Amino acid sequence: MILLWLWLFLNVHAYTCFPNYGSDDAADDQLIDQLIDPRDAADQIGNGTRRCEPCEPALCAAARGCRAGVLLDACGCCWECGNLEGQACDPPGGRSEYYGRCGGGLSCRVERRRAPGVGMEEVGEMGVEEEDGEDWGDEPLCVCTEQEPVCASDGVTYMNTCQFREANFSNPQLKLKERGPCKTVPVIKVAPQNQVKGLGSSLVFLCEVFAFPMAQVEWTKEGLLDLLPGDDPHISVQSRGGPQRFELSSWLQIEGAERGDSGTYRCVARNNLGSVSASATLGVLSHEELSAYLTASVSEMKEMLDYSQSRGDDQDYY
């Protein structure tokens, strides 16, 4: 008896609950289950179980805060927010209407995801890059159709026009200055870090630089006139583009560290607009000295932790 009343209630209010969709007679027995599980209900739209009814714009919810613009829903009635770059999406022509469609300037493409830290294989229009790893399957994502970087009036380089439009949504005063990256003095995104190592250890200093035009990176050591590595066989320098566009990563590597390797090392990046540098200190200790240094460091950290706990800094306040 209860199910009968529920069936009658749903039939009376079906059009109110779903202003853009009506149900076929053959699907009435599944209506309750579809309403309980939103994903199943959404899938049924694309599978043809529901059909679009005459549009009633007054029943449409307002689409607000749409950073990727607005578009009409699957029935062409209500305006809804488009999905942003990197969000999951429903491929064109697909049967599912679950994730939604991509906003303006974006297209839904398939990427083959792999386990974290293993790599990713891109499929289709994105190109193919094969790497070993456990395959997680295909996932359609929104990808910006224009991958050309642009320079904005705030002096920031946006890697594609979609990123610029998102920023412009939050800051309407932002203007497109020119196509292509902003010309800038090099900026060190990742600076080399201080290190303490034992005799005979191997170590690497890393320096990541963003610049346009592309920067040239050099390494020096305080007290030496020549650029590194010079003719020292246990020191080497390598550079390559990346990890992001218009970035350069450079490594200074030391194999079998010696006492004389202690000192301050400097990463210097320059282009025709200027230069910038960042430095880090290396200390090379004997095994006994290193052991004492590590013991003292642990003791100092423990004292700081005890002091913090005595003040109640580890408590959460709401």
TrEMBL record:
The keyword Oxidoreductase does not apply. Its main location: secreted. It is found in: Secreted. Residues 186-283 form the Ig-like domain. Keywords: Disulfide bond, Immunoglobulin domain, Secreted, Signal. GO terms for cellular component: extracellular space. Residues 48-122 form the IGFBP N-terminal domain. InterPro entries: Growth_fac_rcpt_cys_sf, Ig-like_dom, Ig-like_dom_sf, Ig-like_fold, Ig_I-set, Ig_sub, Ig_sub2, IGFBP-like. This is Kazal-type serine protease inhibitor domain-containing protein 1. It comes from Merluccius polli (Benguela hake). The lineage of its organism: Eukaryota, Metazoa, Chordata, Craniata, Vertebrata. The gene is Kazald1.
